């Protein structure tokens, strides 16, 4: 018997469609593990987070990009294929729309699908030589100053070689998948998911020549805050946060476990890009 995960946005329309999908899957003799998408939490939970069963055949995500990122955190390092189903506006992480859901689900049950690996980043925080936090992100990790804090001073190293000290409202380190999220809003470039790079985008930098930088995905990025830093938050995919200060060393590198996103024949990345960004040639 196949076992399928179902992660659902807390939204009446998404919940209704999830009910229909669960009933349909059960009629196909499929066991359903259902989970509501948890809202983002400003503070990372200290206790061990609940993980998806390791024997899931795949995961359907009904909701937006935030719900998808929540589902990715639930899957963790497991090699479980995942499919995003968008509701309302076009989502970059959604592969299909609700009107095509049952047709696509039928093909998936027949094993008639392919997956595309998407790079994730591994983020660790060390304090006094001990690891405080270790997280993975699909989109980005962000260093953000609080509303009342002064400019953050973010000392940055590439492969232990000093790069610069960003004086800015913050710094976004993003994957190609995350290039169309917060990094884009902060002036970063759009990068195709197949490009092996990591994007470093300062948020409102004090020095205008501090521009977004793309580095190879083979490097290790190390970050330290200047002394007397306060009210600085490290956020993971916009889903959870962790307070940091000058005692912490943040390390970011490519994670060895990518996310395996289910792809649908005929769905082109550039069509989604044009539609979402409302470029000429994009479908409305």
Q: Report the uncertain regions.
A: none
Please tally the β strands and state the result. 19
Supply the CATH architecture of the largest domain: 3-Layer(aba) Sandwich
Ends distance:
40 Å
Number of helices: 5
Mean pLDDT: 91
CATH superfamily of the largest domain: Probable inorganic polyphosphate/atp-NAD kinase, domain 1
Integer-rounded radius of gyration: 20 Å
Biggest sheet architecture? 6 strands, antiparallel
Looking at CATH, which topology of the largest domain would you report?
A: Rossmann fold
Q: What is the succession of H and E elements?
A: EHEEHEEHEEEEEEEHEEEEEEEH
Strand residue content:
35-45%
Helix/strand/pairing class, anyone?
A: alpha+beta
**Which range best describes the helical content: under 10%, 10-25%, 25-40%, 40-55%, 55-70% or over 70%?**
10-25%
**CATH level-1 class of the largest domain:** Alpha Beta
Number of domain modules: 2
**Gross geometry:** globular
- What strand order characterises the main sheet? 8-7-18-15-10-11
Kindly describe this structure.
The protein has 2 domains: 136 residues, 3-Layer(aba) Sandwich (Rossmann fold); 134 residues, Probable inorganic polyphosphate/atp-NAD kinase, domain 2 (Tumour Suppressor Smad4). 17% of the residues lie in helices and 38% in strands. The protein contains 5 helices and 19 strands. It has a 6-stranded antiparallel sheet. The mean pLDDT is 91.
